[in-house]
Amino acid sequence: MQTRITEQPSAYRHLETKSVQEITRYINTEDKKIALAIELVLPQINALIEIIVTKIKNGGRLFYVGAGSSGRLSVLDVIELPTTYGADPELFQVILAGGVDRLAEAREEMEDDKNEAWEQLLKKGISQKDLVVGISASGTTPFVLAALSKCRNEGIDTGCIVSNPGSLIAAQALYPVEVITGPEFITGSTRMKCGTAHKMIFDMISTTTMIRLGRIIDNQMVNVKLINEKITDRAVKMLMGLSNINDYDTAKELLFQHGSVQNALTSSNGKY
C-alpha cells in the first residue's frame, strides 16, 4: 500500500490553545523544510525541464493536468507567462478539474472524474509532440491518474509533481518529481507545504524554460508585454541599459515601434 505521508498527523497538537506567536513560529518552522525537500529532487526537476524545453523547441506544448490547490497554483503560474515573457499562451496550458474558467469555485468533487481530463486533452489536439504533467499532492487523484494512464497508452510522454513516495501517478510518469515535504501543519491540509513546494517548482519550470527558449537577455524580461505605465517605464530603461541609447524618449519610441525590448534590439541591427 502506498505511503500517504501527506495524510499523517501533524507534529503539533492542541493548536486551539496556542498563541498567535506560537502558531506562526510553528508554521515558519515547517515552511523552512520546503526548500530542502526541493533540493533533494533537483535532478528529477532538471530532467523534467529538459524534456519540456525539447518538446517546445520541436513544436510541442506542455499540459499540466491537476486538481485541488496545486492544480489551481499551476494555473496562476501559466497565466503569467504571456505577460512576463511574451510567450505564446498555447505553449503552457492547464487542464483543471472543474475547469480553469471556474477556478475560484474550487470544485473538489471533480477530482474523481476519470474521463474529463482526457476529453479536454483531445479537444486541445493532444499528440505525441506534447508533454502532459500530472499535478497531485496525494499522487492518487483519479482525474490526474486516468489522464496520465491514457497518455501512456497513446504514446504521449508524461511527467508528474507529487508529494508522496511510490504513488500511482508517479508510476505512470516517465519524468516523475516526488517532492516529500512531510506531514502538514494542519493534518492533511496540502494547501500548505505541498502547495508551496509545488508553486516553487512551477516557478523553476517556467522560468528556466523561458530562459532556455531565449526569452531572457542577461537577467532581463526583454519580452515583457507593455500593459501599463510601470512596465513600460521598466522596459524603456531596460532597453537603454542594454543598448547605447541615452535618450528616454528615443528608447520609448523604438520600444513601441517594435513591441518589445528584444525586438527593438534585434531590429536595430547594431545601430544602438
Describe the structure.
- The protein is of the alpha/beta class.
- The chain is built from ten helices and five strands, in the order ααβαβαβαβαβαααα.
- It has a five-stranded parallel beta sheet with strand order 2-1-3-4-5, with helices on both faces.
- α6 links the parallel β4 and β5 (175-178).
- α8 crosses α9.
- The radius of gyration is 21 Å and the shape is globular.
- The protein starts with 19 loop residues before the first helix and ends in a 5-residue tail after the last helix.
- The model has no long low-confidence stretch (mean pLDDT 94).
The count of β-strands is 5
Percent range for helical residues? 40-55%
- Unreliable sequence segments: none
Instruction: Please describe the biggest sheet, giving its number of strands, its sense, and whether it closes into a barrel.
Output: 5 strands, parallel
Written as H for each helix and E for each strand, in order along the chain, the element string is: HHEHEHEHEHEHHHH
- Which superfamily, in CATH terms, is the homologous superfamily of the largest domain? Glucose-6-phosphate isomerase like protein, domain 1
According to CATH, what is the topology of the largest domain? Rossmann fold
Structural class by secondary-structure content: alpha/beta
| Strands ordered across the widest β-sheet | 2-1-3-4-5
**Rg calc:** 21 Å
Q: Report the end-to-end length measured between terminal Cα atoms.
A: 64 Å
Number of domains: 2
Residue-averaged pLDDT, rounded?
94
> What is the approximate shape?
globular
CATH architecture of the largest domain: 3-Layer(aba) Sandwich
CATH class of the largest domain: Alpha Beta
GO molecular function: carbohydrate derivative binding; carbon-oxygen lyase activity; ether hydrolase activity
Organism: Niabella soli DSM 19437
Keywords: Carbohydrate metabolism, Lyase
Protein name: N-acetylmuramic acid-6-phosphate etherase
